[in-house]
Amino acid sequence: MIDPTRWFELPVVPRLTRRFDGRVGEWIRRLTDEATFAAVVTAVVAFGYLRGSVSVSIDPPLLAVGAIVVIEAAVSMVSFSGFVALSGLVMVAELAGFGERDVEVTDGPRVAAVVPVYRDAPALDRSVESLLDSRYANLQVTVVAEPDDDASLARAAELADEHARVDRLVNTRYPGSKAGAVNYAAEVTEAPVVAVFDADERVDPGFVGGAVARLTEGADAVQGRTVPEPDGLVETLAYYESVLLNELSHRLLGLLTGFRMVSSRAVVLRRSAFERVGGYDTAMLTEDFDFAFRCFEADLAVEELFSRPSTIEAAHCGRDWWGQRKRWMTGYAQVLHRRLAGLRPLEWRSVVALATCAGAVFGNLLLLSMVSKVAVLAATGREALIAVLLAAVLGVSLLVRTVDAVGGHVDGVGVGWLLAPVVFPLYGLAGVKGAVEYAITWDGEWFHASKEG
User: Fold this and answer.
1) Cβ atoms of 83 and 424 closer than 8 Å
2) In a domain, 219, yes or no
3) Is 128 inside any structural domain?
4) Alpha helices, H only, 53-119
């Protein structure tokens, strides 16, 4: 596969740091990385504070009250609060099932359910057993393990021996990546429908049947929802981060552009659609993010099925949480690099894909700058506007948690939703760090978070 990122070189300074070899070169790269990260964060916070203190004049065209002079931080706070509240209402309505076709079939075309696994043998039973409990009958599970992962290979072999509908596949064709494992499984199966699930994913019994029903009605791909299990402090933060930054941020975007995420878990696709976009790209760190944009540019009909979510394990410690998010954002920067290199200015989907990807990367700067705006409002005695933002964030978080609790996807409501605002600056920091590392020190390494099963 031709790598178009070679057509668009990275900034000069990162390229220069790679001219130094050995330990000295590694030290220089790391130092440049940390210094750049600190400089970017400092600049964003400082600029956000200075910008937020600037007075702006607003002249409402429909109100005969003359110009209103406010500080920029107030405008930003009201705008961001409105976005959170409006997106949250759309999301809660979707999660509650308003307007969703609740259809499900129990038989139909053969579905190849692919479960790639790497060093997650303790969690493998979750996905395999839940898939075997599916109400959809014509389903075959293929567990794809890496050649150097003895524990997963052994457990996959045991599951294959115990269940006739489970096969074990050793990823000898494209070893070393989740994308390669999925692609290999898709190549060796002939099922007209391909589904992908994570090893730690507990799949709802009606999800596959519900997704196949959507495919028979014309969809090319059906993306399900995954709910991190909030059974600890870090896990709870991961749950609300998923709500506020992964799901909520896509609501209005999807309505305006038609863009839908097509991930590499909880997803069911027509084989023809999978092959049309060439499968997942093994060169991409976040293969699903890249895959979603290629599906969008190919004009695939993507639908979301929220009524039958899967539950997944969240990161269990701060190190894993940080490592996962940093890896994701490094991958996002890689995808942005490729989208920029492969931009087709005369094709609107290519332009929208680039703008959406850029928003996912540079939106982290906005999240960090909101900390400065909060400081400006606190310093100028406008705490009421801070309360508006908190009310929007906490209100949406509480509503979603309540819907999930009523649906049986989480255990109760609890008080963890009070921590939800913390995810914005933390995720912003991880996002900046990931982007900086991609430009300076990332050399293709992957981060693996432990799964307990």
Assistant:
1) no
2) yes
3) yes
4) 72-95
Strand, coil or helix: 264: coil
Q: What is the DSSP string of 155-190?
A: HHHHHHHH-TTEEEEE--SSTT-HHHHHHHHHHH--
Q: Three-state SS for 141?
A: strand
Q: CA 174, CA 166: separation in Å to the nearest integer? A: 21
pLDDT tens-digit series, residues 170-183: 999 999 889 999 99
**pLDDT over 90 for what percent of the chain?**
54
CA distance 117 to 322: 21
Cα 421 to the center of its chain, rounded Å: 18
The total of structural domains in the chain comes to: 1
CA neighbours closer than 13 Å in the CB half-sphere of residue 107: 1
Does residue 122 lie in a domain region?
yes
Range of the domain at 123: 111-238+262-341
- What does the pLDDT read at residue 101? 64
**Residue 26 scores a pLDDT above 80:** no
d(CA 39, CA 43): 6
Q: Which residues pair with 311 in a beta bridge?
A: 202, 227
CATH of the domain at 303: 3.90.550.10
**Spatial distance between the Cα atoms of 287 and 182, rounded to a whole number of angstroms:** 11
d(CA 365, CA 194): 37
Q: Is the pLDDT of residue 17 over 90?
A: no
* Segment 95-110, tens digit of pLDDT: 877 656 678 999 999 9
Q: How many residues are given for the chain? A: 453
The predicted pLDDT at position 98 comes to: 65
Under 8 Å between Cβ of 159 and 127: no
Judged by average pLDDT, the poorest of 11-25, 29-43, 143-157 is: 11-25
Q: Where are the beta strands (DSSP E) in 97-250?
A: 111-117, 139-145, 166-170, 193-196, 221-228
| pLDDT for the residue 10 | 46
- What band does 278 get if pLDDT is binned at 50, 70 and 90? very high
Residue 213 included in any domain: yes
Q: What is the mean pLDDT of the chain?
A: 86
CA distance 245 to 248: 6
Q: Which long-range contacts (CB under 8 A, 24 or more apart) does 423-427 make?
A: 423/237, 423/240, 423/241, 423/244, 423/245, 424/244, 424/245, 424/367, 424/370, 424/393, 425/367, 425/368, 425/370, 425/371, 426/237, 426/241, 427/241, 427/245, 427/325, 427/364, 427/367
